[in-house]
Amino acid sequence: MMTRRNLIRWIAAAMMIPGLLVTSASFAKTEPLSGAAPDFTLPLAGKKKLKLSQLQGNVVMINFWASWCGPCREEMPLIEDLFQKYKKLGFVVYGVNVDANPQDAQALLKESGVSFPVGYDTKNKVSQLYSVDSMPSTVMVDRKGNMRFLHRGYKPGYEKDYEKQIRQLIRE
Predict the structure, then answer these.
(1) How far from 24 is each of 11, 19, 65, 91, 152, CA to CA, in Å?
(2) Helix 102-112 to helix 70-86 angle, to the nearest 10 degrees?
(3) Cα 51 from Cα 38, distance rounded (Å)
(4) Residue 139: which residues within 8 A CB-CB, separation 6 or more?
(5) Can you state the percent helix, strand and coil of the chain, rounding each to 5?
(6) FRET pair for 132, CA 20 to 30 Å: which of 37, 41, 48, 126?
(7) Are residues 64 and 133 in contact, defined by beta-carbon separation less than 8 angstroms?
(8) Cα–Cα–Cα angle for 167, 81, 112, nearest 5°?
């Protein structure tokens, strides 16, 4: 027999579930963005640095990732494939690693064979500048330096959305 206290708990739990479902369902995989992409400079492997504004005139995918992030590891080779496919058309990937220790990231990069530039945001200043709240996060920037799309997280199939957006932005 259910006590009054247990009934109240059950009702409260049942009322919370629809709210959780709405919250997670409204968390879109692609969100439109507008406005200029905030400029930043990060150190690359070696002693070089890369400033985002140096890439203006290209379509830029800024991909925030971490070596400890499983979906990031899954997504990385797919982003490399897109980079190789579209780089001759003015597409660039700027990877932004958020690991506190760049050596953790470098081990993954070596393992995955990534060839696009990766900057090290060890103090998470660029991540804060872009209000990154999930790993991976990807911002698509048009040739004029304007943010156009935001992707939070990664699930298989998202790369198809990336490719559609890359093609759209290259044609503009």
Answers:
(1) 21, 9, 21, 32, 12
(2) 60
(3) 11
(4) 33, 37, 61, 62, 64, 130, 147, 149, 150, 151
(5) 45, 25, 30
(6) 48
(7) no
(8) 150
pTM, two decimals, is 0.82
Residue 71: CB atoms within 10 A of its CB come to 16
Element (H, E) at 53: none
pLDDT tens-digit series, residues 56-111: 999 999 999 999 999 999 999 999 999 999 999 999 999 999 999 999 999 889 88
Instruction: Give the tens place of pLDDT for each residue, 115-170.
Output: 999 999 999 999 999 999 999 999 999 999 999 999 999 988 899 999 999 999 99
Residue 60 near residue 53, CB atoms below 8 Å? no
Rounded Cα distance between 55 and 61, Å, is: 10
Tokens of 144: 């004029």
